[in-house]
């Protein structure tokens, strides 16, 4: 089984979990976010990084001054990322145009060529 199939299966399983179970499965890191927001944001560890080891997916939220608001935003982003990872791509099959379609295409090309031929100057 390839790595991408394992990650897809882990993502499908993780989507079904509730928030508490998903958070328990993730590795949480808190860090000083920095940026605009005043002294409160620059001195407290309000930035949140969630890493989901089975899928190797990591998300970061630093836009709020509150750690629990950033945790909720990171969890929402993680769910969106897991949903994207869980999608099974549609198998594309090569198609060949049938005889009627090929004839119609040639007929249209001949009509266009005749139309363009009429536009030419007769000098």
Largest sheet: 3 strands, antiparallel
C-alpha Rg (nearest Å): 28 Å
| Unreliably modeled segments | none
Shape: elongated
Strand order of the largest sheet: 1-2-3
**Total DSSP helices:** 5
| Amount of beta strand | 5-15%
Q: Could you name the CATH class of the domain at 3-86?
A: Alpha Beta
Average pLDDT for all residues: 90
Distance between the termini: 71 Å
- The percentage helix is 40-55%
Number of strands: 3
CATH topology of the domain at 3-86: the name is Double Stranded RNA Binding Domain
Spell out the helices and strands N to C: HHEHEEHH
Structural class: alpha+beta
Please tell me the CATH architecture of the domain at 3-86 by its name: 2-Layer Sandwich
What does this entry look like structurally?
This protein has 123 residues and is of the alpha+beta class. It has a domain at 3-86: Double Stranded RNA Binding Domain (2-Layer Sandwich). It is 54% helix and 13% strand. The protein contains five helices and three strands, in the order H-H-E-H-E-E-H-H. Strands 1-2-3 form a three-stranded antiparallel sheet, covered by helices on one side. A hairpin with a 4-residue loop joins strand 2 (47-52) and strand 3. Helix 1 (3-15) crosses helix 4 (67-86). The radius of gyration is 28 Å and the shape is elongated. The mean pLDDT is 90.
Secondary structure elements and pairings:
Blueprint: H1 3-15, H2 19-25, E1 27-31, H3 38-43, E2 47-52, E3 57-61, H4 67-86, H5 99-119
Antiparallel strand pairs: 1-2, 2-3
Helix pairs in contact: 1-4
């Amino acid at each position: 089984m390839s790595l991408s199939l394992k990650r897809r299966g882990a993502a499908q399983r993780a989507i079904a979990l509730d928030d508490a179970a998903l958070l328990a499965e993730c590795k949480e890191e808190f860090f000083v976010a920095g940026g605009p927001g005043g002294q409160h944001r620059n001195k407290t560890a309000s930035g949140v990084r969630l890493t989901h080891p089975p899928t190797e997916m990591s998300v970061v939220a630093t836009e709020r001054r509150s750690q629990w608001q950033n945790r909720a935003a990171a969890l929402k982003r993680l769910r969106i990322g897991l949903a994207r990872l869980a999608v099974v791509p549609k198998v594309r099959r090569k198609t060949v145009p049938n005889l009627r379609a090929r004839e119609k295409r040639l007929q249209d090309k001949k009509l266009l060529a005749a139309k363009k031929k009429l536009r030419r100057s007769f000098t």
